[in-house]
Design goal:
Layout lengths: L2 H24 L3 H23 L10 H22 L14 H12 L7 H8 L5 H27 L17 H9 L2 H11 L7 H27 L7 H25 L4 H11 L6 H8 L4 H27 L3
């Protein structure tokens, strides 16, 4: 690990996020929503298609979603075990967990922001040539986990059952709703197109323009993160938030990282997967907390603590991965 490695990610990560935070304070509240829709429907799909161009694909790529699901299930298992014993851990918990608090605690411990934060981090610290590993981890792991298992958990622990895509509705949740949400995700469609046309010939001007737009979308993703952080006002339940973030960003990556190392995984592929496991809680946890009336104060605090924790923990993960050539 070198200072240049850290500057490579800290300058854009903190710089663009700060720009977004300032814009979020100055601009109308509708701007982040519009930017989020643009990135969801247009920007992110274009960047996925562009970065998949000439990416290295191997038969071992199946390992990425397998590890993603292992991280999700391990995080959920540890969080559930601790949540059941919250009354015995007054040092870490403000009070015994309510049903809603336990749901938020579970989601924050298992679902990572492997998209809007994970993409820029992977591109800066690993490079586009291994971006396929990041995409397989995110789209076949985190995305399916958020709108599949995540929705089911939120529906179980929430005080009401609704459609996660329509928070104001009163419909009872059904499994097909999660499937429909996943199928409608344009990132998955662009992922398929990117794989199909990965090596298709393209004029240099179009290729370079596509790559330039993709990097611009990465910057916009960080700006959006800053805007969303500027809208968070509550900051309570710090102790359980620290515990959930510790599970998500430290304990799970360490345990599974040791397993992967023992299995012989190394190099930039190892760094890619470990960094994805170490991402902070996803903003999807707040969407689910609002939709199913979970403990939103804990969810918001975990998001803030997770983003701050990423800045502190990145040097540790780079140092750890640098010893695994």
């Amino acid at each position: 690990m070198t200072v240049d490695n850290l500057l490579t990610i800290y300058v854009p990560l903190l710089g663009w996020t700060l720009v977004g935070w300032v814009c979020g304070r100055l601009l109308p509240a509708t701007v982040p929503a519009l930017l989020g829709k643009f990135l969801f429907w247009v920007g992110v799909p274009i960047s996925i298609f562009a970065f998949l161009r000439h990416a290295q694909l191997t038969a071992a790529l199946w390992l990425a979603p397998v590890v993603a699901w292992a991280a999700i299930l391990l995080g959920a298992g540890l969080a559930w075990w601790l949540g059941q014993r919250s009354q015995h851990y007054a040092r870490f918990c403000d009070r015994p967990f309510s049903h809603q608090t336990q749901g938020s605690f579970l989601l924050a411990s298992m679902l990572g922001n492997t998209g809007y934060i994970g993409y820029p981090v992977a591109l800066a610290l690993v490079g586009p040539q291994y971006f396929a590993w990041t995409l397989f981890y995110d789209l076949l792991g985190s995305t399916l986990g958020s709108y599949g298992l995540g929705v089911a958990i939120a529906a179980h622990f929430g005080s009401k059952t609704t459609d996660a895509t329509q928070p104001s509705s009163k419909k009872h949740w059904r499994p097909w709703q999660a499937v429909a949400t996943i199928i409608k995700n344009p990132a998955l469609w662009s992922f398929g197109l990117g794989l199909a046309y990965r090596d298709a010939p393209m004029p240099p001007l179009l290729e370079n323009s596509l790559r330039g737009v993709a990097w611009f979308v990465v910057a916009l993703s960080l700006v959006l993160m800053g805007m969303r952080l500027s809208q968070l006002s509550s900051f309570k339940h710090v102790k359980p938030a620290l515990l959930s973030v510790g599970i998500k960003m430290l304990l799970v990556p360490l345990l599974l990282g040791m397993v992967l190392w023992a299995l012989g995984l190394s190099g930039l592929v190892y760094r890619t997967i470990v960094l994805q496991m170490a991402m902070p809680p996803a903003f999807a946890t707040l969407v689910l907390a609002e939709a199913y009336e979970l403990d939103q104060e804990l969810t918001v605090t975990a998001l803030v603590v997770g983003c701050l924790g990423l800045v502190l923990l990145l040097p540790f993960w780079l140092w750890l991965c640098s010893g695994n050539p």
